[in-house]
Amino acid sequence: MSLSFLNRSYLGFELRRTFRNRRFFIFSLGFPFVLYFLIAGPNRNETNLGGTGLPAPLYFMVGLAAFGTMNAMLSAGARIAGERAVGWNRQLRITPLTTREYFRAKVVTGYAMSCLTLGALYLAGISLGVSLTGSEWLRMTGLILVGLLPFAGLGIVFGHLLTPDSIGPAMGGSTALLSILGGVFFPITNGTMVKIAEALPSYWLVQAGHVGLGGKGWSATGWFVVAAWTVGAAALARWAYRRDTVRV
Amino acid sequence: MAVETGIELRGLAKSFGEVRAVRGIDFTIGRGETVALLGPNGAGKSTTIDMLLGLLDPDGGSVSVFGLTPRAAVDAGDVGAMLQTGALIRDLSVRELVAMMASLYPSPLEIDDVLELTGISDIASRRTQKLSGGQTQRVRFAVALVSNPELLVLDEPTVAMDVEGRHGFWTTMRAFAARGKTVVFATHYLEEADAYADRIVLMANGTIVADGPPNEIKGMVGTKTIRATIPGAALDALEKLTGVTRAERRGESILLACSDSDAAIRALLAAFPDSRDIEISGAGLEEAFLTLTGGENGHGA
């Protein structure tokens, strides 16, 4: 496959500048990776974590896969806040770049970061003895990638509504809230909490990861919730982008 | 085939809350013209430019760029602009950034030519976050030019440049305009408008105060002042000198507002040969506008 589009297209340059930003790269990729070894490392020989019947390295790998990819996806969009602060999106607005192309570049960049995060966590998991069948790896990865769609939109919304000052706390807060309510760190068992969790895209991202734990994947509700959040976030993102032409 | 259609602003108005930034202005710009929007800060120049570029929707009136809406003209790749505020996105080299922008247009200029033209060939491989203020401005100019636009819009482009940078900048702009391109630039320097525009549209308080060739406008706002220490001179005697309109005492020295500073300095030296510490300077635009608009002071934005 030719990579020459990297030299000529808007998307190519966008990818290039994302991977060149060492701080961004290290934090979005390195954070879940380090966290994984901190949590799963000491429990690497635990084969029945909390009575779940699951080995600890596997359990934490899928949990952090949800957390890490969600974070990578949201952060990719949130970088827009910095571009707006220097007036770049006004500069883009006086070019023929369409809303669609602009979004595509942002979403593909987010997916590129997410895939790297996922790959790093899979390698880390394998190094601690995680072993899944080929079909389990594939089904889990596929569902996670679909489950990330709402976060691509939400990241862009954050990037257009917030400033570089507020983006850090806002992102940290929402990621933590979505993670906890969605059951990234602790399984959700309480009835009411399950109802809330099922309405959140983060819950279904975790369920996608749980395919690796022998889970069934998504129910019809799951597909519906993810689709609804994707459509909603995309509409919000479009609105936020369109209104965002004034001097900041 | 309406090839000659230029730019038309009709009854254009925009307010921000209570502030009436642009109060219903009309003017047209012919294809190939270089027009300066001249006015002090808060005159409404940037707001007008934002509406011309489709970045702001007017409250009233309309803009047409080569017969199209601003948005359609931008989509057709007809417009290039250097906005007043703005930096560059980071993590690309200067060349990559210019190439990235070129990739968005149907018929861009050659990257090397643009780098050469804007004098940034020597910093082409430097990262955008490592440039000085003046270099950043030149890269932004390159970004505006690379699209090879029919209409080039520059909003106070020389603000962060040193004298040498300014000179190079305007030379490049003139060379580009000479290809038959239409250029609109905003400035609050009379000298820039006078030297580089075919026509000056003078704005103050969101309205057009005057519109004409640079010579004409210069005559209206180009008043000068003479400042000197003049031993034993009475103010009313000074005010009677040819070319002097007003005399004021400022501490030790005296300030003479002049309608014709050349005649005034000759008359001054003839009548008061002891005059010393003489300085002649152009009056600030703000002051000139106060005179022109009869001292009416609306809200500046």
How far from one another are the termini of chain B? 40 Å
Output the number of helix runs of chain A.
13
Shape of chain A: globular
Count of runs of 4 or more consecutive helical residues of chain B: 11
What characterizes the major β-sheet of chain A? Answer: none
Residue runs with pLDDT of under 50 for 5 or more positions of chain B: 295-301
Total beta strand runs of chain B? 13
Radius of gyration of chain A: 18 Å
Question: How much of the residues of chain A is beta strand, in percent?
Answer: under 5%
- What oligomeric assembly is this protein in? heterodimer
Q: What's the average pLDDT of chain A?
A: 86
Percentage of β-strand residues of chain B: 25-35%
* Series of secondary-structure elements of chain A, N-terminal to C-terminal: HHHHHHHHHHHHH
Q: Strand order across the biggest sheet of chain B?
A: 5-6-7-3-8-9
- Share of helical residues of chain A: over 70%
Proportion of residues in helical segments of chain B: 25-40%
Name the pair of protein chains with the most residues at their interface, and give those residue counts. Answer: A-B, 24 and 33 residues
Rg of chain B, alpha carbons: 22 Å
Structural class of chain A: mainly alpha
Along the chain, the helix and strand elements of chain B come as: EEEHEHEHHHEHEHEEHEHEEHEH
Chart the SSEs and their pairings.
The complex is a heterodimer of chains A (248) and B (301).
Chain A: H1 5-8, H2 10-20, H3 22-40, H4 56-78, H5 80-85, H6 88-93, H7 99-127, H8 134-147, H9 149-161, H10 164-181, H11 191-198, H12 201-209, H13 220-243
Helix pairs in contact in A: 2-7, 3-4, 3-7, 4-7, 4-9, 4-10, 4-12, 7-9, 8-12, 9-13
Chain B: E1 7-16, E2 19-29, E3 34-38, H1 45-52, E4 60-65, H2 70-75, E5 79-82, H3 94-102, H4 111-117, H5 133-145, E6 151-155, H6 163-177, E7 182-187, H7 190-196, E8 199-204, E9 207-212, H8 214-221, E10 224-229, H9 235-239, E11 244-250, E12 253-258, H10 261-271, E13 276-282, H11 285-292
Helix pairs in contact in B: 7-8
